[in-house]
Structure formats: C-alpha cells, structure tokens
Specification:
The complex is a heterotrimer of chains A (282), B (317) and C (334). Chain A contains twelve helices and no strands. By secondary structure, chain A is mainly α. Chain A has a single domain, classed as Orthogonal Bundle (MetI-like fold), CATH 1.10.3720. Chain A is globular, with a radius of gyration of 22 Å. Chain B contains ten helices and twelve strands. In chain B, a hairpin with a 2-residue loop joins strand 9 and strand 10. Chain C is an all-alpha fold and 334 residues long. Helices cover 74% and strands 0% of the residues of chain C. Chain C is globular. The model of chain C has no long low-confidence stretch (mean pLDDT 80). Chains in contact: A-B, A-C, B-C.
Chain lengths: 282, 317, 334
C-alpha cells in the first residue's frame, strides 16, 4: 500500500486522474442510494426551480430533478464511452496486429481504410449514420454507432507500435524457434504492449464519450435518456442561458469537465508508466 | 618551448544523477603547444567527449564544471561572459564532430550551415562574397563547390565529415578538437578524411586534439598521446615512446591488445570491466583490473607526474 | 517525379470524394427511411390536416425529386448532380436549393475555422517552443498547467463557460448569433464590427482549447530536437541563441506538428460544428443542426459531403506542401 502512495507522488497525473474518476463513481453510487432516480423523468417535480435543499441541483423545464438526472445520466454516458471504447480498441488491436505482423496486402488494405477514415471528420459520419437509422436510438445502439468509427485511430497507433516491436530481436528468435504467428502475437508482442494498449484504451473511451455527447447535443441521441449530452441539448433547445436558468447547464458542465479531465490525467499517468522519463535536476 | 596555445588545469566535471553523482572528468591537466597534434584515447565512457565539451564551456545541466580552469592564448575562458565564450567558439576553438552521424542540420543546405557561422560571428559579407568564401572552404577540404547547394542526406559519410571540417576551419581557429571524426567511416574514407584534416591543420598552423579509441589511427596522426581512464588522465607521452615503452599498466594492456600482422596466437584483452563513474574504487581507478596492484594502489590515488620525460599517473612507474 | 506524386495525391483526394458521395447516397437508403414521406407527415401533423391524400402527395413529390426511379439511375443522377455541385432542393426550405444554403453558411465557418486554427497553431507552437527553451522567461512556466487542463475539454464546453462569464455575468460580449438580430448584412464598418464582436466568444472557445494541445506537442518535439547532435554542433559553432532556437530547433521540431495538423483537421471541424450550434453562429454547423431538427436529408447530405471534400482538399494541399518543408521527403516516395 505504501508503495502505491509513493508511486503516486512520482506520478501525480495518475493520482489526479484516478481521484477525479473515483469521485464521480462515488457520486453516482452514493447518489443512487440516496436519491430517487425516478425523478430523472419528466414531470416528476416542479419546473424551473433554482437549487435549494429540496432540489440541490435545481429542476429543469420539463420537470426533472437535475440531481437525479446527473446521477442517472452519468453512468449512461460513461457506459456508451466504455462500450464504444472497448469495442473500438478491441477491433483496432486485432486489425493492427494482423496488419503489422502479416504485412503485405492485408496491411495495405487495413492501413488504407484507416488512413482515409481518419481524414473524414468522425462526427459527420456519425451524424449520417444516426440520421439514417429509423426512429431514435437507444443508449446501446448509440454505443455501437460510435464504435463503428472508434477503431480507426487505435488501429493506426497500435500498428505503428507493433511494427517497431516486430523488428526487435526477441521476435526474430521466437520465429526462428518455430513459434506460430498467433502464438508470437499473444505471448511475445502483446505483454510488451500492455501499458500502451491501456493508454490507447483510455484515449478511445474519452473520444467515444466526446463523440456521443456531440451527437446528443445535436439532438441525435436517445431522446428519453437523461444523459449528459441530452441535458445539454435541452439546455440549448430552451435557451437556458439567455433565460437565466444557470443551474440547468452548470451541473452537466461540471460533470463533463470532471470526466474529461479525469480521463486526460489518467492518460498522462498511463503514458508515464509506458515511457518513464528520468527527472532532470534543472 | 613556446607558450602553450591551450592549457587545461585540474578540470573536474560532474553530472548530478538521482542515483548518485557521476564524475565524468576527474582532475585533468595538460597543455597544447601551437601546431601540435595531441591524441586523447580511452574506452567509451572514459570522459573524452565530456572533456572536449567542457573546454568549450558547453556542459549543460545536470552536468557542471566543478573545478579547474582553461586558458586559451593566455586568457582564462572562465572569465568570459556568455557573449565572450560564444565568440571564442569556432573562431578560437573549433569542434569537428562525428558529422557522418547527425551533426548537420537535415533541413538546411551545406552552404547555409557554413554561412550562418560566418554571419553570427559578425562577418557582414555580400551574397557574392559569401558564396565565394563558402566555395573556397569547400575546396580546401576537397569537396566540389556544388556541395554548398546540397542537403546533408544527399552526401556520403565521408563528404559529410569533410563538410564539418570545412565549417570548423571557417574562422581560422588556433585549436581544433576533433571528436571521433572517423569512427563511423570505412578505412578508405577514414584515410581521406584524416589526410584532409592533417592538411588543413598544417595550413592553419592550428593545434589539434584528436579524440578517439583507434590506437592505429592515433599512431599515424598524433605527436603526443594521452590515455584516459575513468575520467582521469593516466599517461601522456610522445607517440613513439608510448607505443614502444608504455608505462601505465592500462596503456600497456591497450597496446598489447592490438592485433599484430606478424605474431599469432590468442587475442589479449583486458580482464574485468571499466568502473562505473558513479561508484569509483578508492585509490587508483584501475587497480581492480591491474595485475601489479599493491596496497598503496588500493588506497592512494596516483598523481600525474613526470617520469623520464613522460607524464604517468601510477605508483609503480 | 513531382508531377507523379501530385497526381497520386490528387487521385487519393478524388477517391475520398467519391467514397463520401457514395456513402452519403446509400446509407440513408439502407434503412428504408423515406424523407419525403416523413416530412409530409410532419407537416400534416403540424397543420392538423386529416391524413388523406398523403400517399398521392408523396408519390407526386417523389416523382418531382426523382425518387421513384430505379436505384442505379438515382445513383447516377446523384453523382451527376454532385459533380456539378447540385445537391438538390432543401426539403425544409423548399424552393431554396441546398447549394445556396451551403454557400451562405460556408464563408462564416471558413472564416471562424481558418483563423482559429491558424492562430492556435501558431501561438501554440511558439509557446511550446519557448517553454522547452531553458532561457525562456520564468513566468511562462505558469501558463502550462492551465493550458494543459484546458486542452482536454471539448470546445463547446468552454464556449458555455465563457458565455456565462463574459456575456452574461459581465455583459461584455453578445451571447448569440453571428450578428445582432435585426442588423442588415452589409459591407460596412459597422456591420463588420458587429460581426467581429459576435465572433470573439466562439473563436476564443476554440483558440483557448486548441492552443494547449499544440503547445504540449511542440514542447515535446522541441525537447527531442534539442537533444540532437546537430543542435550541439550548432552551439559549438558559436551561433547566437536565437539562431539556434529558430533555425536549428524550431524549424525541425515543427515538421511533425504540421503532419499532426493535417490529421487533426477533422477533429477540429467536429468540435467547431458544436461550437457553432451552441452560439447560433450562422455557419454550416448551425445549418446542419437545423437540418437535423427538420429532418432535411438533402441538406444534411450536402453539408456532410461539402465538409468531407473541403477537408480532403486541405489534406491534399498539406500533403503537397510537406516535401517542400522537409527536403528529406522526396517527391518520389509517396
């Protein structure tokens, strides 16, 4: 335990990132016990109340208790991010390894698709996909939609890493000693890439959350769900800023800030683990 | 005996590392007469390059010059401010690095890299004069004038090295420090480059410090040779003397390890490893690997002293 | 050699354009979604009409829009239209054409995006370079943590916060729109000043966030570059500090940054779209948003296509410029 704290002193980013995300997790869990999440639905409580003891985060125009909305919505938003991020990195890893290890035509095709896909602004393609789907999306459907593009960047970066690792001596030795391709991939290459994969995963989750919030703010998200992005959509729709209902957008903003900053510091912290830097004395 | 053009006295350079202080240069003193060629040989990590950089006051944190002084033409370099020492670099003491590796800016043409040295040292030449000057320098080192318009990646290793020499002699320095100028080149090109270096040095009347670890190269080029071990200077002698009668056990082992064309048999190495500069043994740094080590060697550090015309740092010399 | 490289890059650009157009065409149709039908239903619901005759109206509109022809014919007509930059009529704003709407909105977005991207890249890179330089003024180090923290958040979020602070609490700048409501767009100083005032907050949201990213990246690159042998030799040559900084360090460190810029354009644009929506800035972001709200498929497709093409073109230009910046990359190896 002591060693863990000592490491946190050397790697403050990691500590900060974990702290922020843990705070959010606590908020959701404890909140879920203390607050009735049914109040996150419309017409549950009086409308447009400023924060008070009864409604600590205030209420919105459709009669939702914003505290309940935040408690119910944060895990939904995070869930989309995690599902899409994991799917994206999972698929990306597989494709990256195939491309980097087997080279040849497979590599050219995979890399070509990833390169072209990355030139295109992701949000716009997601918009086209979302608009094409009949009816409105559920939370899980949205995760799949975001995941469809989430594999592009991980494929590219992981491929680059595998390529550089592939040339190392121990891979040659493994190959010469008769190890099969998949065995080399799983037993030799992957363990060395784990820190990097972890950092990529956090990155992908962050990007997925951003994409999902983006879609929701545009009104393409699951319209009934009390997610963070949808709340901001209603804020925009009802011109909450101009009308002076400041509490309506403050809560989601703060929480989104915590999510992104937490994930960012976590990424930096993981990167430090992957490539430790010696401190200079100057 | 003329006034030395360069004098180094008791120079100490250390690096502050979180795991301990590294003594890279430990109490090194020597003098260089005008036009003389001094070699500095030693294993990797013996402090040769650090010594070169410290003479030019280019040591950066976490390294620092702890003690000692450097005199150029009688003037103390430590007395100069930043502008002063900047002016001395290249014009007074010039460095010839391993150009064939990465010492040339990849996105500038060779001519530009020669010219910006001239400009920053105050030479205000018109474009014509500048081009002419650059072409003259390139010719001096045996490169065709059109090299000025080329980029480093378009040149071969030997050509890049000679381009670095051209830069080094641009301001007619009195001291040239060549840090492993031919280590990455094949022997044929090595010879060409060394011949070029010898020629320009003579034309300039400049003194040269040649840093390297190739004893054969040293034998062909230098007048005097200094041997460095673990950041310390252990022997300095005229080249013929040192090859024929090496006095320090380390030098002896070095000379003996050179393969000879006539003799046959197993190659002789030096047992043991060079000490970590962070954790030097007490007394003489070489004693753990020396077959003649005595108790005095283990406790008392030998000082570089004159023994029959030769400087040696050994209790047994 | 040079011509072959440029031609190849242009070919990739055309490929992207074609892919974008094709995806744009097929994806909506895959779901069996009928934009005309649903729009008519929507209008009918709004107007309270009885739902009779909708089927005939739909068929008539479809005939007008060419939606009753076989798929491959529609595709060819579509490609033909796209090549002539004709994206059909806007369903919601009929009889205005999609290309008109885009032409109105695009300059606003280009102005906003162009200036903010260039400014944040330039300021960020310079700042990052200075931060890595040991002789930089100490107060600059204090800029790092806030820039760092800022660059992790989405543009539009900062937009919300800035709006509250600078437009609401302290009514310094306008909250909404591209120009004041009721102002008539004209080529006058007054209008220009109005536009500028309205552009400050959206621009700031983008610049403050993006600069941090560029500064961080540049600082990292500078640290790597400063450790290179050619920088040591540059100092040994007795070059002045500014010369070493600019000619030897910055000019080398900025090359990977330019590549990163080309790759980041898509992301920046996505972020800018949301910023426009939050501020009601009359660019293609807002156009897209309204089109989504009104289920105006043709506008959506037109905007997405235009954006993809614009980005593809910019990437193409950057690809062609890059070998000029870095002489090591020859035009031969594409």
């Amino acid at each position: 335990m002591r060693a863990v704290f000592r490491y946190f002193r050397r790697n403050p980013s990691l500590a900060l990132g974990i702290a922020l995300l843990a705070a959010l997790a606590l908020f959701v869990v404890i909140g879920g016990i203390l607050v009735d999440t049914e109040d996150a639905r419309p017409l549950s409580v009086p409308t447009l109340r400023a924060p008070s003891w009864a409604y600590p985060f205030g209420t919105d125009r459709q009669g939702r208790d914003l505290l309940a909305v935040m408690i119910a919505g944060t895990p939904l938003t995070l869930r989309i991010g995690f599902i899409a991020g994991f799917l994206g990195v999972g698929l990306g890893t597989v494709l990256a390894f195939i491309a980097a290890y087997y080279r040849g035509v497979l590599d050219t095709v995979i890399r070509g698709i990833a390169d072209i896909g990355l030139t295109v602004p992701g949000l716009l393609v997601l918009i086209i996909i979302a608009v094409s789907i009949k009816g409105t999306l559920t939370v899980n459907q949205m995760a799949i939609v975001v995941a469809s593009l989430a594999w592009l960047y991980p494929t590219r970066t992981i491929r680059a890493q595998v390529l550089s690792l592939r040339e190392r001596g121990y891979v040659e030795v493994a190959r010469l000693s008769g190890m099969s391709g998949p065995a080399i991939i799983f037993l030799e290459l992957m363990p060395n890439l784990l820190p990097y994969l972890a950092a990529t995963l956090v990155n992908a989750v962050s990007a997925a959350i951003l994409a999902s919030i983006g879609l929701e703010v545009l009104g393409l998200g699951p319209i009934d769900a009390p997610t963070l992005g949808m709340t901001l959509y209603w804020v925009n729709f009802n011109a909450a800023m101009i009308n002076g209902w400041w509490w309506w957008w403050t809560a989601p903003t703060v929480i989104i800030l915590m999510v992104f900053l937490g994930l960012f510091f976590l990424t930096v912290g993981l990167d430090e683990i992957a490539n430790p830097r010696l401190r200079r004395s100057a | 005996m003329s006034e030395p053009v360069l004098r180094v006295e008791r120079l100490r350079v250390a690096f502050d590392h979180p795991l301990g202080k590294v003594q890279a240069v430990d109490d090194v003193s020597f003098a260089l007469t005008p036009g003389e060629r001094l070699g500095l040989a030693g294993e990797s990590g013996s402090g040769k390059s650090t010594l070169a950089l410290s003479i030019m006051r280019m040591i950066k944190p976490p390294g620092r010059i702890e003690a000692g002084a450097v005199w150029l033409n009688g003037g103390r370099l430590a007395d100069l401010d930043e502008e002063g020492i900047r002016a001395v670099r290249l014009a007074g003491i010039a460095l010839v690095p391993q150009g064939s590796m990465n010492s040339l800016n990849p996105i500038l043409r060779i001519g530009q890299q020669i010219a910006d040295a001239l400009i920053d040292h105050g030479l205000r030449l018109g474009r014509r004069a500048e081009e002419w000057r650059v072409a003259a320098l390139l010719t001096e080192v045996g490169l065709p004038a059109n090299v000025a318009r080329m980029y480093p990646h378009e040149l071969s290793g030997g050509m890049k090295q000679r381009a670095c020499i051209a830069i080094a002699i641009a301001l007619r320095p009195k001291v040239i420090i060549a840090d492993e100028p031919t280590s990455a080149l094949d022997v044929v090109v090595q010879r060409q480059v060394m011949a070029t270096l010898a020629r320009v040095q003579q034309e300039l009347g400049a003194a040269v410090i040649l840093i390297g670890h190739d004893m054969g190269l040293m034998a062909q080029f230098v007048d005097r040779l200094g041997i460095m071990y673990a950041g310390r200077l252990v022997e300095v002698a005229p080249i013929a003397d040192i090859i024929a009668h090496p006095r320090h056990p380390y030098t002896r082992a070095l000379i003996a390890s050179l393969p000879s064309l006539e003799a046959r048999g197993a190659l002789a190495g030096i047992p043991g490893l060079a000490p970590s500069l962070r954790d030097l043994p007490p007394g003489c740094a070489f004693h753990p690997r020396c077959e003649f080590a005595t108790d005095r060697c283990r406790e008392e550090r030998p000082v570089l002293r004159d023994v029959a015309g030769v400087d040696v740092a050994c209790h047994l010399a | 050699m040079q011509a072959a490289y440029i031609a190849r890059r242009f070919g990739v650009f055309l490929l992207i354009v074609w892919l974008a157009a094709t995806l744009n065409f097929f994806l909506p149709r895959l779901s069996g979604h009928d934009p005309v039908h649903s729009k008519l239903l929507q209008q009918a619901a709004l107007g309270g009409y009885v739902q009779s005759g909708i089927e005939e109206m739909t068929r008539e509109y479809e005939r007008r829009f060419g939606l009753d022809k076989p798929l491959w014919r529609q595709y060819l007509t579509y490609l033909n239209g796209v090549a002539r930059l004709d994206f059909n009529y806007s369903i919601a704003n009929y009889p205005r054409k999609v290309s008109e709407l885009i032409a109105d909105a695009l300059p606003w977005t280009l102005a906003l995006l162009g200036t903010t991207t260039l400014l944040s890249f330039a300021i960020g890179s310079l700042l990052g370079a200075l931060l890595a330089w040991p002789e930089a003024p100490r107060w600059m180090l204090w800029l790092m943590p806030p820039l760092w923290a800022l660059h992790a958040i989405p543009f539009f979020l900062l937009g919300l916060i800035l709006t509250y602070l600078l437009a609401f609490q302290i009514p310094l700048l306008p909250i909404f729109g591209g120009y004041s409501a009721g102002a008539v767009p004209a080529l006058s100083w007054r209008f220009g000043w109005d536009v500028l005032q309205h552009a400050v907050l959206p621009a700031l949201s983008i610049i403050l966030v993006a600069t941090g990213g560029w500064a961080l990246g540049m600082r990292g690159m500078m640290v790597t570059t400063m450790g290179e042998d050619y920088v040591t030799f540059a100092e040994a040559k007795g070059l002045k500090a500014p010369t070493v900084f600019l000619r030897y360090c910055v000019r080398n460190a900025i090359l990977p940054q330019v590549t990163a810029l080309a790759l980041a354009l898509g992301q920046v644009l996505s972020g800018a779209v949301l910023v426009e929506v939050i501020f009601g800035y009359p660019g293609i972001g807002t156009l897209l948003f309204q089109a989504i709200r009104e289920n105006d498929h043709f506008v959506i497709q037109g905007v997405v296509f235009t954006v993809i093409v614009a980005l593809g073109f910019t990437t193409f230009v950057l690809d062609v410029i890059y070998p000029w910046l870095d002489p090591r990359i020859s035009y031969r190896r594409a």
